[in-house]
Design goal:
The chain is an alpha/beta fold. The chain is built from 15 helices and eight strands. Bound molecules: iron/sulfur cluster (SF4) (2 copies).
Length: 383
């Protein structure tokens, strides 16, 4: 290892941005051994950390934007280095200087849309609940059982709107008294925070928290693991606590309490993809599998990487808004794994995963080989 003199000011700036924990790293490289990037190209978190420790970070480079915050390497580190915090700190510094490589430019568009319309997809705020216009869904009020927090992709993305409709349909069939916030809902802010825009995150989080308090929200059902993660683990930084349940957890309760009855036969082989923010980050592995195992006729099979070793789809950490060359997409590998497992359906529970998998399905010309489904879509067809 060469000896280099540290650039003290840069090091201090990275520390101030929240990356100080890099000092614990002793360069063992165990993080790189599990990083999904090394399946598709060279990338070294170990090197990124060493450069940060010496103030040698290439602030305009691609590497500091690569980490998908998949949560794999923090579980391996013998020194407790929080690699995701280091990556986010570096992004905060780059964001402050407004230095971005070409692949990150589209994330800047998403950021601008978050600031002006409260969603990253350039949809108008007033159209946030357009997906629900024929669904007879009520606005949330205090006496209801729960708020359904729909999230940005399910509100605006044409593919994901189908998941919002399936979710609402299940809740109605189970007799759940629920409502939505309509144009008072803003992006949860999870991904823009990981992409280094802390102020945008704080503005979005405060908007939502103000609305939750004003409307008397206590229990929140979410479809996205990213909303789940930030409401549960990050919003408490603002001294608030709401009961948050992912739809998979809620669905399992509805089935166990006899509020939903599954009818007919679903004679297909299905594999389940654990989204990083549901599995590794929050330990929810059993509920989705338990739900699928309740479906008559359904055969559940595992892929090569599952539960805590699940393979990231590539969409976390704001990567869903960045450009990834076709040959570097983890989601392509995941579809190949689903095919190798003999599954005709790849089921999951995250809007980013579904978006990436649908794109890989087209790129790989797998339209006749594997279908991509949210668990709610499978269940709704069985009611
Ligand atoms: S969190 Fe995941 S993507 Fe990020 S460096 Fe670690 S293993 Fe790689
Ligand atoms: S696993 Fe931890 S100690 Fe080892 S190189 Fe990675 S960050 Fe450093």
């Amino acid at each position: 290892m060469e000896t280099v003199a540290p650039f003290i000011e840069v090091v201090e700036e990275i520390k101030e941005a929240g990356g100080e924990i890099f000092k614990l790293c002793f360069q063992c490289g165990l993080c790189d051994a599990v990083c999904p990037w090394n399946r598709v190209r060279d990338f070294s978190m170990r090197k990124l950390i060493r450069e940060a420790a010496f103030g040698l970070t290439e602030i305009d480079g691609e590497d500091l934007w690569r980490c998908t915050t998949c949560g794999n390497c923090p579980t391996q580190c013998p020194r407790g280095v929080k690699q995701i915090d280091v990556a986010v700190a570096l992004r905060r510094v780059a964001t402050e200087y407004e230095v971005f490589p070409a692949s990150v430019k589209s994330a800047r568009t998403a950021r601008a849309s978050l600031i002006s319309e409260g969603n990253p997809l350039q949809g108008e705020r007033k159209n946030r609940s357009q997906w629900a216009k024929d669904q007879s869904i009520k606005p949330f009020s205090e006496e209801m059982e729960a708020l359904y927090f729909v999230g940005c992709y399910l509100s605006y993305d044409p593919r994901m709107k189908k998941v919002a409709v399936a979710t609402a349909s299940i809740l109605k069939k189970a007799g759940v008294e629920f409502g939505i916030l309509g144009d008072r809902e803003s992006c949860c802010g999870e991904s823009i925070r990981k992409a280094g825009s802390e102020e945008v995150f704080k503005t979005l989080a405060k908007d939502n928290i103000k609305t939750f308090i004003e409307k008397g929200v206590k229990k929140i059902i979410v479809s996205s693991p990213h909303c789940y993660h930030t409401f549960k683990n990050e919003y408490p930084e603002f001294m608030v606590h709401f009961e948050v349940v992912h739809m998979n957890q809620y669905l399992m309760d509805l089935i166990e309490d006899g509020r939903l009855e599954l009818k007919g036969e679903f004679s297909k082989r299905v594999t389940y993809h654990d989204p990083c923010y549901l599995g590794r980050h929050n330990g929810i592995y059993d509920e989705p599998r338990n739900i699928l195992n309740r479906v008559p006729g359904l055969e559940l099979v595992e892929m090569e990487n599952f539960r805590k070793n699940s393979l990231c789809c590539g969409g976390g950490g704001g990567r869903i808004w960045m450009d990834t060359p076709k040959e570097e997409r983890f989601s392509d590998i995941r579809l190949e794994q689903a095919k190798a497992a003999g599954a005709s359906i790849l089921a999951t529970s995250c809007p980013y995963c579904i978006t990436n998998f649908e794109e890989s399905r087209l790129n790989l010309e797998y339209e006749d080989i594997v279908e991509i489904k949210d668990i709610t879509e499978i269940i709704n067809d069985m009611l």
